[in-house]
Design goal:
Structural class: alpha/beta
Radius of gyration: 17 Å
Number of helices: 8
Oligomer: single chain
Strand content: 15-25%
Amino acid sequence: MTEPLRWRRILLKLSGEALMGSQPFGIDPAVVERISVEIADAVKLGAQVGVVVGGGNIFRGVAVAAKGGNRVTGDHMGMLATVMNSLTLADALRRRGVPARVLSAVPVPSICETFTQRGADRYMEDGDVIVFAGGTGNPFFTTDSGAALRAAEMQCDAFLKGTQVDGVYSEDPKINPDAERYTQLSFEEVIQRNLKVMDTTAIALARDNSIPIIVFSIHTPGALVDVLQQRGRYTLVSD
Protein backbone atom coordinates (compact mmCIF):
# COMPACT_ATOMS: atom_id res chain seq x y z
CA MET A 1 0.00 0.00 0.00
CA THR A 2 1.26 3.47 -0.88
CA GLU A 3 2.31 5.51 2.13
CA PRO A 4 0.23 8.65 2.74
CA LEU A 5 1.69 12.07 1.99
CA ARG A 6 2.76 14.07 5.02
CA TRP A 7 2.41 17.33 3.09
CA ARG A 8 -0.18 17.55 0.31
CA ARG A 9 -0.04 21.10 -1.05
CA ILE A 10 3.57 22.09 -1.53
CA LEU A 11 5.74 24.82 -3.00
CA LEU A 12 8.89 23.41 -4.60
CA LYS A 13 11.76 25.87 -5.04
CA LEU A 14 14.47 25.00 -7.56
CA SER A 15 17.53 27.06 -8.33
CA GLY A 16 18.20 27.94 -11.93
CA GLU A 17 21.55 26.19 -11.53
CA ALA A 18 19.68 22.93 -10.86
CA LEU A 19 18.61 22.95 -14.52
CA MET A 20 22.17 23.30 -15.85
CA GLY A 21 23.31 19.78 -15.04
CA SER A 22 27.01 19.57 -15.80
CA GLN A 23 26.84 22.44 -18.27
CA PRO A 24 28.42 25.82 -17.43
CA PHE A 25 25.36 27.73 -18.61
CA GLY A 26 21.77 27.34 -19.78
CA ILE A 27 19.38 24.40 -19.60
CA ASP A 28 20.18 20.69 -19.76
CA PRO A 29 17.08 18.99 -21.27
CA ALA A 30 17.93 15.68 -19.59
CA VAL A 31 17.91 17.32 -16.14
CA VAL A 32 14.60 19.06 -16.85
CA GLU A 33 13.09 15.73 -17.93
CA ARG A 34 14.28 14.00 -14.76
CA ILE A 35 12.88 16.76 -12.53
CA SER A 36 9.58 16.60 -14.41
CA VAL A 37 9.42 12.87 -13.62
CA GLU A 38 9.91 13.63 -9.90
CA ILE A 39 7.07 16.16 -9.95
CA ALA A 40 4.82 13.88 -12.01
CA ASP A 41 5.31 11.06 -9.49
CA ALA A 42 4.30 13.39 -6.64
CA VAL A 43 1.19 14.50 -8.54
CA LYS A 44 0.17 10.86 -9.15
CA LEU A 45 0.20 10.32 -5.38
CA GLY A 46 -2.18 13.24 -4.87
CA ALA A 47 0.16 16.16 -4.21
CA GLN A 48 -0.83 19.66 -5.30
CA VAL A 49 2.37 21.24 -6.56
CA GLY A 50 3.51 24.79 -7.14
CA VAL A 51 7.05 25.38 -8.43
CA VAL A 52 9.35 28.39 -8.43
CA VAL A 53 12.52 28.20 -10.54
CA GLY A 54 15.33 30.70 -10.21
CA GLY A 55 17.09 32.22 -13.19
CA GLY A 56 20.76 31.98 -12.23
CA ASN A 57 21.55 29.51 -15.01
CA ILE A 58 20.72 32.25 -17.52
CA PHE A 59 21.13 35.62 -15.83
CA ARG A 60 21.65 37.12 -12.37
CA GLY A 61 20.47 40.67 -11.78
CA VAL A 62 23.11 41.34 -9.13
CA ALA A 63 25.78 40.76 -11.77
CA VAL A 64 24.71 43.99 -13.47
CA ALA A 65 24.92 46.00 -10.26
CA ALA A 66 28.31 44.47 -9.42
CA LYS A 67 29.69 45.99 -12.62
CA GLY A 68 28.19 49.42 -12.05
CA GLY A 69 24.92 48.89 -13.92
CA ASN A 70 21.39 49.58 -12.79
CA ARG A 71 20.21 46.95 -10.29
CA VAL A 72 16.55 47.41 -11.20
CA THR A 73 17.29 46.74 -14.88
CA GLY A 74 19.36 43.73 -13.92
CA ASP A 75 16.61 42.31 -11.75
CA HIS A 76 14.06 42.78 -14.52
CA MET A 77 16.33 40.76 -16.81
CA GLY A 78 16.60 38.09 -14.11
CA MET A 79 12.80 37.91 -13.89
CA LEU A 80 12.64 37.21 -17.60
CA ALA A 81 15.18 34.42 -17.13
CA THR A 82 12.82 32.77 -14.64
CA VAL A 83 10.04 32.95 -17.22
CA MET A 84 12.23 31.06 -19.69
CA ASN A 85 13.03 28.35 -17.14
CA SER A 86 9.38 28.09 -16.12
CA LEU A 87 8.23 27.61 -19.72
CA THR A 88 10.80 24.84 -20.14
CA LEU A 89 9.69 22.96 -17.03
CA ALA A 90 5.96 23.34 -17.78
CA ASP A 91 6.50 22.02 -21.31
CA ALA A 92 8.34 18.96 -19.97
CA LEU A 93 5.50 18.27 -17.52
CA ARG A 94 2.84 18.54 -20.21
CA ARG A 95 4.74 16.06 -22.38
CA ARG A 96 4.37 13.61 -19.49
CA GLY A 97 0.63 14.14 -19.40
CA VAL A 98 0.74 16.38 -16.33
CA PRO A 99 -1.34 19.56 -16.76
CA ALA A 100 0.91 22.53 -16.04
CA ARG A 101 0.49 26.29 -16.24
CA VAL A 102 3.00 29.12 -16.06
CA LEU A 103 1.74 32.12 -14.08
CA SER A 104 4.03 35.14 -14.15
CA ALA A 105 4.20 38.04 -11.70
CA VAL A 106 5.57 40.07 -14.62
CA PRO A 107 2.80 40.39 -17.25
CA VAL A 108 3.81 38.75 -20.53
CA PRO A 109 0.31 37.86 -21.78
CA SER A 110 1.36 36.68 -25.21
CA ILE A 111 3.53 34.01 -23.57
CA CYS A 112 1.81 32.97 -20.33
CA GLU A 113 -0.88 33.94 -17.87
CA THR A 114 -0.42 36.69 -15.29
CA PHE A 115 -0.44 35.51 -11.68
CA THR A 116 -3.49 35.99 -9.49
CA GLN A 117 -3.94 34.18 -6.21
CA ARG A 118 -7.52 33.19 -6.98
CA GLY A 119 -6.64 31.81 -10.38
CA ALA A 120 -3.65 29.86 -9.08
CA ASP A 121 -5.69 28.39 -6.21
CA ARG A 122 -8.38 27.23 -8.63
CA TYR A 123 -5.83 25.61 -10.94
CA MET A 124 -4.12 23.80 -8.08
CA GLU A 125 -7.44 22.47 -6.81
CA ASP A 126 -8.05 21.14 -10.33
CA GLY A 127 -4.76 19.24 -10.18
CA ASP A 128 -2.63 21.49 -12.40
CA VAL A 129 1.02 22.04 -11.52
CA ILE A 130 1.59 25.78 -11.30
CA VAL A 131 5.01 27.11 -12.24
CA PHE A 132 5.29 30.59 -10.75
CA ALA A 133 7.53 32.84 -12.84
CA GLY A 134 8.81 36.40 -12.50
CA GLY A 135 9.70 36.26 -8.81
CA THR A 136 7.61 38.73 -6.82
CA GLY A 137 7.43 41.04 -9.83
CA ASN A 138 9.61 43.55 -7.97
CA PRO A 139 13.36 44.21 -7.99
CA PHE A 140 15.56 43.63 -4.93
CA PHE A 141 13.75 40.41 -3.96
CA THR A 142 15.23 36.96 -4.50
CA THR A 143 13.35 34.03 -5.98
CA ASP A 144 13.59 32.40 -2.53
CA SER A 145 11.53 35.28 -1.16
CA GLY A 146 9.18 34.99 -4.12
CA ALA A 147 8.76 31.28 -3.41
CA ALA A 148 8.04 31.89 0.28
CA LEU A 149 5.49 34.54 -0.70
CA ARG A 150 3.72 32.15 -3.07
CA ALA A 151 3.78 29.39 -0.44
CA ALA A 152 2.01 31.72 1.98
CA GLU A 153 -0.49 32.98 -0.61
CA MET A 154 -1.36 29.45 -1.68
CA GLN A 155 -1.59 28.26 1.93
CA CYS A 156 0.90 25.49 1.26
CA ASP A 157 1.53 22.77 3.82
CA ALA A 158 5.29 22.92 3.22
CA PHE A 159 8.00 24.82 1.35
CA LEU A 160 10.46 22.37 -0.22
CA LYS A 161 13.83 23.60 -1.40
CA GLY A 162 15.62 21.26 -3.80
CA THR A 163 19.33 21.97 -3.57
CA GLN A 164 22.71 20.53 -4.54
CA VAL A 165 23.10 18.80 -1.13
CA ASP A 166 20.90 16.59 1.05
CA GLY A 167 20.02 19.07 3.76
CA VAL A 168 21.32 21.98 5.82
CA TYR A 169 24.94 21.89 6.96
CA SER A 170 26.94 24.01 9.40
CA GLU A 171 29.28 24.85 6.51
CA ASP A 172 29.44 24.10 2.81
CA PRO A 173 30.10 20.32 2.76
CA LYS A 174 31.83 20.65 -0.60
CA ILE A 175 34.43 22.86 1.06
CA ASN A 176 34.49 21.21 4.49
CA PRO A 177 33.70 17.47 4.33
CA ASP A 178 33.48 17.44 8.14
CA ALA A 179 30.63 19.97 8.24
CA GLU A 180 27.76 18.99 10.53
CA ARG A 181 24.52 17.97 8.87
CA TYR A 182 21.30 18.88 10.66
CA THR A 183 18.12 16.80 10.53
CA GLN A 184 15.91 19.39 12.24
CA LEU A 185 16.21 23.09 13.07
CA SER A 186 13.98 25.90 14.24
CA PHE A 187 13.52 29.05 12.18
CA GLU A 188 15.34 31.03 14.88
CA GLU A 189 18.30 28.66 14.87
CA VAL A 190 18.69 29.09 11.12
CA ILE A 191 18.64 32.88 11.45
CA GLN A 192 20.86 33.11 14.55
CA ARG A 193 23.49 30.69 13.21
CA ASN A 194 23.40 32.42 9.82
CA LEU A 195 22.97 29.10 8.06
CA LYS A 196 22.82 29.58 4.31
CA VAL A 197 19.43 27.95 3.72
CA MET A 198 17.92 30.95 1.95
CA ASP A 199 17.70 34.69 2.54
CA THR A 200 16.31 35.96 5.84
CA THR A 201 13.22 37.50 4.23
CA ALA A 202 12.15 34.10 2.91
CA ILE A 203 12.78 32.39 6.25
CA ALA A 204 10.82 35.08 8.11
CA LEU A 205 7.89 34.75 5.70
CA ALA A 206 7.77 30.99 6.22
CA ARG A 207 8.11 31.38 9.99
CA ASP A 208 5.38 34.02 10.27
CA ASN A 209 3.00 31.81 8.29
CA SER A 210 3.98 28.56 10.08
CA ILE A 211 5.11 26.91 6.84
CA PRO A 212 7.86 24.31 7.43
CA ILE A 213 10.90 24.47 5.16
CA ILE A 214 12.31 21.17 3.94
CA VAL A 215 15.75 21.13 2.34
CA PHE A 216 16.75 18.10 0.26
CA SER A 217 18.84 17.13 -2.75
CA ILE A 218 16.98 17.50 -6.03
CA HIS A 219 19.67 15.35 -7.67
CA THR A 220 18.74 12.19 -5.73
CA PRO A 221 16.29 10.10 -7.78
CA GLY A 222 12.93 9.73 -6.04
CA ALA A 223 13.85 12.26 -3.36
CA LEU A 224 10.76 14.44 -3.78
CA VAL A 225 8.28 11.60 -3.13
CA ASP A 226 10.51 10.30 -0.33
CA VAL A 227 10.35 13.67 1.41
CA LEU A 228 6.58 13.90 1.03
CA GLN A 229 6.30 10.49 2.67
CA GLN A 230 8.84 11.42 5.38
CA ARG A 231 11.55 9.12 4.08
CA GLY A 232 15.04 9.76 2.79
CA ARG A 233 17.48 12.46 3.79
CA TYR A 234 16.41 16.02 4.39
CA THR A 235 16.48 18.82 6.94
CA LEU A 236 13.23 20.07 8.44
CA VAL A 237 13.07 23.71 9.53
CA SER A 238 9.96 24.47 11.56
CA ASP A 239 8.58 25.97 14.75
